[in-house]
Amino acid sequence: xxxxxxxxLRSFRDDFRWDGVVLSPYKEDGAAPxxxxxxxxxxKQPDLACELRYFEMAPGGYSTLERHEHAHAVxxxxxxxxxxxxxxxxxxxxxxxxxxxxxxxxxFRATRGVPLGFLCMVNRDRDRPQLPAEQDLAEFRKDPALxxxxxxxxxxx
Amino acid sequence: xxxxxxxxLRSFRDDFRWDGVVLSPYKEDGAAPxxxxxxxxxxKQPDLACELRYFEMAPGGYSTLERHEHAHAVxxxxxxxxxxxxxxxxxxxxxxxxxxxxxxxxxFRATRGVPLGFLCMVNRDRDRPQLPAEQDLAEFRKDPALxxxxxxxxxxx
Lengths: 157, 157
Known about the structure:
Two copies of one chain form a homodimer. Chain A is mostly beta strands. In chain A, about 10% of the residues lie in helices and about 45% in strands.
């Protein structure tokens, strides 16, 4: 009556790990800057056109500052911190939703002394990220709010 | 330097609502059986090949028992309850992951006196669900565990 394929339930464990889900390095390639961040691929399968990943930063950790053609759909799942979106720095906390449009600079930082974990939905077929050039970073740093974010010291609220 | 499109942050509010996200009926078509369940479309946009939706049942509520060709990727986000997956009944709680393969019967029920809310990732392009025939339901009810689930009284553990 129903499919032969066994349905799959993976239970949540303590500390934002799941049964049968491997804790992976954030990126295979260490050329891009990041700190104290891990990746878990929660759903990645041929019959789904997107993947769902869980990224988590320890306090003080951050994802790579990057942009790309593909969009991201993010839900914060744990803790709080800040994110850079284009030219704006925003505080984020558990369950907030962040839509990252095509070619928008973005970075997440665990700035609040607690871990910051988020779900990220992304197309399986996608382009590679671009990193900011020195000139881009210099441009960012002209804005005090962005400079404070990049130094890991954004305002609390 | 970055895209013109404004980046979008939608803040989490109390009781699993989000700023700017509409609370929708579970289904447009009331022909399929369901009870005390709502839908919020968290991400649905042309540049993402999947949608991310949040469904929530009040205590005693349930989603439609159905199957279809497309797969679902589910994360429980709130509370606890039970789900039917193929021919098995499983207790589920916050942050558990459930992969629902193609053509697998499935239903969620808020059986534990608390709301049951879950995220569901699904391809934007997908087929319509099929409902069980009377004969399918009679077949289910031959299994005491499935019968108890369908009556809203599955075992606690």
